[in-house]
Amino acid sequence: MWRRAIKSFTRPSDKESVPDIEPILQAAVESPSSYGLQPWKIIVITDPKIKTMLLPLAYNQQQIEECTHLLVFCARKDFDERISDYVGYTGSSKEVAEAMSGMIASQSHPTQWAKHQAYIALGFALAAATERKIASCPMEGFSAEGFSAVLDLPHTLIPTVLLAIGIENTDVPNGPRFRFPRSDLIEYATEAFPSFTSSMPSKSKYRSVTPVRKRREKCE
After folding, report:
1. Cα separation of 64 and 68, whole Å?
2. CA 127 to CA 124: how far, in whole Å?
3. How many alpha carbons lie under 13 Å from residue 194 in its C-beta half-sphere?
4. 59-79 as b/e: b if 16+ CB within 10 A
5. What is the pLDDT of residue 202?
6. In a 3-state reduction of DSSP, which class is residue 106?
7. What's the pTM value of the predicted model, to 2 decimals?
């Protein structure tokens, strides 16, 4: 209930010190990930000059420049190298590595899968910031290509989502906090949908039917 996306940050004063983001970063590190591959990396930015350069690439959203720490969550594309590193760290078997490679190969958009994994880490970082009452703001409105250029990122890293962290500027009103009612967002499934179950073939319906391929072979 306390957490909200802070739109304006203020500089640390004598009463307010720079937030300690180490627990937030550690929460991201400990977040769950498919196969434990963690196909992402966080770039931490504190340099005012770099933040000023990134500002126009994020539609001049002032959080970029005002925050004390800007976390850039990047999805990784170097899947083969990632799997190799995982095997090296864990001593996993060849079969495990092959299973990982097969899982990634089965993805229609592997990079999109990696981005989803980065969002899981973002969620845990947000929760950690909230637990410590540290102001934060997740952000998607920015140019990934522009950020890559300014930060001189390798082509294997794709900026995916941002998390601005800092001290809330209480002189700037945020507006009312809104959430849809639980009944609109959460539904309990108590039974299978009739339209789905009625369309499912029974086990015996096709049991005696000759496969199409074999029927064609007989015709030929």
Report:
1. 9
2. 5
3. 0
4. eebebbbbbbbbbbbbbbbeb
5. 60
6. coil
7. 0.86
Amino acid found at 8? S
Phi and psi (nearest 5°) for 19? -60, 145
**51-107, pLDDT tens digit by residue?**
999 999 999 999 999 999 999 999 999 999 999 999 999 999 999 999 999 999 999
163 and 125 in contact (C-beta within 8 Å)?
yes
Give a three-class secondary structure readout of 4-46: CECCCEECCCCCCCCCCCHHHHHHHHCCCCHHHCCCEEEEEEC
Q: How far apart are CA 161 and CA 122, in angstroms?
A: 8
Core vs surface per residue 3-31: b (16+ CB within 10 A) or e:
ebebbbbbeeeeeeeebebeebbebbeeb
**218 or 181, greater pLDDT:** 181
What is the radius of gyration, based on Cα positions, of the chain? Answer: 24
User: Domain boundaries in the chain?
Assistant: 9-168, 182-219
Cβ atoms of residues 61 and 16 within 8 Å: no
pLDDT at 130: 97
% pLDDT > 70, the chain:
88
Span 9-168: which CATH code?
Answer: 3.40.109.10
pLDDT tens per residue across span 168-180: 999 998 888 899 9
